[in-house]
Amino acid sequence: MTRQERALRTRRMILEAAAEMFNELGYDATTISGLIDRIQLTRGGLYFHFTSKEELARGVLEEAISLDGFVPQAFKLQEWADLALLLAHRLPREPVLSAGIRLSVDIKAREMFGTRWPDWTEMGNEILTEAKDRGELLPHVDPCETARLFVGAWTGVHLLTEVLPDGDLSKEVSGLLALVLPNVACAGVLAKLDTSPYRAERLLVAAGVPQPS
C-alpha cells in the first residue's frame, strides 16, 4: 500500500468515526478528544487530515450527495425513484450518509454549515423537468414543487422510521413512492416503474458497489 493510499484510508476512517459520533451524540456533544479515544489516533495524526470538529462536519456534508448505484434508465421517473430508494437502502448502512441528515436537523450545526437538502431538491427538479419534457408527468405537475415536497417527505419518513420498532427505511420509502407516483406519473409510465424496496440492493450489486453489512 502506498503512502497516499494509507492517507486516504486513514482519512476515511476518521470521517466514518466522526460520523458515527455525530449520529450517536449529536454535533454539540461530539468532541475531538472523544474521537481520538475512539480511533486510537494521535492528535497530530488527526489534525493532518482535519484540523477541527467544524472541518469534520463539513467533510461529512460534502459526502452527503452520493450517486453510488445510480444508472440512467429508460424513464426519468424511474431514475427519480431510484435516487430515493438507493439513499434509503444505503443510509442505515453508511454512517457518513446518515450523519449528513443528523447534522441537517441539528439546529446549531444547520446554522453553521447549512444542509444538502437544496442539492437533493435541485437534482430531483432536473430529473423531473426532463421527465415532464418527455411526457412522463401529468400536465398539472410542477417539477420544482414536487422535488421540494418529496425531499421534505423523504426526510420525515426517515426520521419517523428511526423510532419505529423494526423500522425498515427501504420499505417505508417504497410506500412513499407508491403514494406519490400515481399523482405525478402518466398511467402508461406508472405501470412500468419498479419501486420495490429491494430494487436498490439489486442496482448496487449490478454496479459492483461493495455492500456494507
From TrEMBL:
Residues 8-68 form the HTH tetR-type domain. The keyword DNA-binding applies. SUPFAM superfamilies: Homeodomain-like, Tetracyclin repressor-like, C-terminal domain. NCBIfam families: ScbR_bind_reg. This is Gamma-butyrolactone-binding protein homologue. The keyword Transcription applies. It comes from Streptomyces griseus subsp. griseus (strain JCM 4626 / CBS 651.72 / NBRC 13350 / KCC S-0626 / ISP 5235). GO terms for molecular function: DNA binding. Keywords: DNA-binding, Transcription, Transcription regulation. It holds the Pfam family TetR_N. Residues 31-50 bind DNA.
